[in-house]
Every structure is written in structure tokens, then in C-alpha cells.
Design brief:
Layout (H helix, E strand, L loop, with lengths): L16 E6 L7 E4 L1 H6 L1 H4 L11 E4 L2 H20 L3 E3 L9 E3 L4 E3 L6 H4 E4 L2 E4 L15 H9 L3 E4 L13 H5 L5 H4 L21 E4 L2 E6 L2 H13 L4 E6 L10 E5 L2 E4 L16 E4 L30 E4 L2 E5 L3 H9 L3 E5 L4 H4 L7 E6 L9
Parallel strand pairs: 1-4, 8-9, 11-12, 14-15, 17-18
Antiparallel strand pairs: 1-19, 2-3, 5-6, 7-8, 10-11, 13-14, 16-17
Amino acid sequence: MTDPALAVNSFDEWTQLREVVVGRAEHYTAHHVDASWRLFFFDNVAPALDGEAAAQGLLPIRDQLVDELNEDIAGLVDALAGSGVRVHRPATPGKDIDINSPHWEARATPPLNVRDQTIILGDTIVETAPHVRARVFENDLLKPIFYRYYGAGSNWVSMPRPALARGSLDDAYFRSQGIDASRATDSETALSIDGLGLEMVFDGAQCMRLGRDVLVNVANYNHELALRWLRDNLPHLRFHRLDGIADNHIDSVIVPLRPGLMLLRSPKYLKYLPEAMQSWEVIYAPETDDSNFPDYSDLGFVIPIGSRYMDINVLSVDEDTVIVNSLYPELITVLERRGFTVIPVRHRHRRLFGGGFHCFTLDTVRRGGPDEYLT
């Protein structure tokens, strides 16, 4: 028997958070440095893509770094539970897992950045279409959670699973910026599928939810197909196309903190937003010092795959309370001056693992509904 009180309900980024999934990093022992990974993280890894150290294959991650990441995730879980939020965790990967399709092979990534492969849109769990081959089976470890929500009456849909064969991924965003992405695409070893061409490929972190309205970053044809699918399958919501505000994810560019107030990386991004949002108050992300990021120089070859702006990636507990990386004191000061209660939580290796607090979490239940914020 279904119970709507136990189903998903998450329409926005700021109303009271009641239930959340927090990702896991066990067995995150390597990045699989294939063409899909290189193209997805191209903005940040391009300077390191030359040379033997970044050759096709596995880029090992030291156990010490994974242990420290797990310590910091435990701190996030404690902070959320201490704020009255019910925390769910994915199943734990039992080992390092190598996966194969008929067209490629990869080392599987654990379910750490759970915001990417799923987005909750109101009462619906939407599994998205992964960009990176190593992440194709990540959501299997979230299915125990999804089935519980489905049993309670939640809707559950999935975008078509991409084959991610050779030629599936579009580098149009980089070409539009005058950037040569061949250092990523020339490393391709996957097989092609005759007649397939560009596929639907999309991450949940390309969206920001504002009640009935959803901002959707579209930087290439892979994303265009996904936007069409969202509009076709969720016609009760309004999806607003952002024209290439970034190459993919936008939660280190824009974070709505409450109606009428947003955190934004810089003024240059205002023009991408719907006209109704351009009159919102803006907190611009303060500059941070390089000393706030770990020095990996004594650990050999390490590639920070995430942006220097990763700490904009905050998580709101409610309209007045925000979880912020304790290693970004400049932002903590700015938010506290604006009257926010800040919960500082340490997060050391956010650039190495490509995710902040918003990335590591999937807010499944918030108090808000399909309200109007853009009229």
C-alpha cells in the first residue's frame, strides 16, 4: 500500500530539507582516464592530458586521500543528521569493479556524486543519461532507496541509457569557445555503432529547481535531446533553456539560496538566466586563497578534475541555513553578514573527486511544492 507521506517531494533547492541521500566513496581507487572522462572534465584536466602520466587507462588515487574524503563525508552526514534531516546512503560497492559493454571497458566509479545520475523533480525520480562510461552502473547502488520511494507512491522514470560508443559525445561547446578538444577525443578507443551518432547524454547537476520552473543548461546536442525528453515526459513543469552557461554542471556557477536571492560565480553569468531572475539579489562568490586547497605536489601525479569554484557548491538546509565548506571562510563570512546560519563542514579533496556538498547529495524530500518564483 502506497504512503504519499513517505514518497519523494523535492521541487526546489532551499525549502526545509527533510530527507537526503549522501554519496559514498569506498573503492574510489582510480579515475578511468578514457575519452568520455577526458571530454567531460576537459576544462580542468586539459593542461595535464599530455604525456605518459595521463595515458589512457587508470589514474590511481592514494588510499590516504580516499580515507580523508570518507572522514569529511562522515562530517557531512553528522551535520545533516544534527539538523534534523533523515540521511540515506547508497549500498556500498564490495570491490573495485571493471565493467565492459560490447563497445568499451572502464573501471566503475562508486556512487559519490549522486546529484549527477539522478534528479528529483517534484514527486518523480528521474535517472539521467551518464556522460562518463565509468558511471553507467552507479545508480544500481541507489536502487534500494529508489524502490522504497517507489513503493510509497513516487513516480520513477529513466532517460534512455546511452551506449556511449565512439561518436556519441558532442564537443560543440568547446568548438563554440574556439577550444580544440582533440586531446580528449583523439584518445578514443571505443568501438562505434553504425548509424548511431550523437546520443542523449545529461546529468542532473545541469539543472536548478525553482518550484514549477527548472533551469536546464544546454551546451551541445547531447543536452538538447535531454531537454526535449524532459519536456515530453514532465509537461507539468516549465524547463528554461540556459544556453551553454557551462560545459555541463551549473551548481558551481549558480545556487538559488531562497526566492529572490542567489549565489553566482560572477556577473558575466547573469545574461544566461531567465529575465525574471536577472532582477534577483545576487551574492557574488568571493575570491579564495590557493592555500585553502590541498597541495598534492608530494603525492606524484594528481589531476584536480573539479573547478576552483567548487566551494560555491553549497547545500541549503532551509531558507536561512546553509552547509558550506569550512575551508572557504571568505564565503562563510559573506553569508553570515547576510543573516544566514552557516554550518561549516570540512571538505578537503573536492577538486580531486569533482564534487562539493551539492554534488554529494540528492535531496529527496523538501517542504516546498510547485510554487511560482519566476512570475
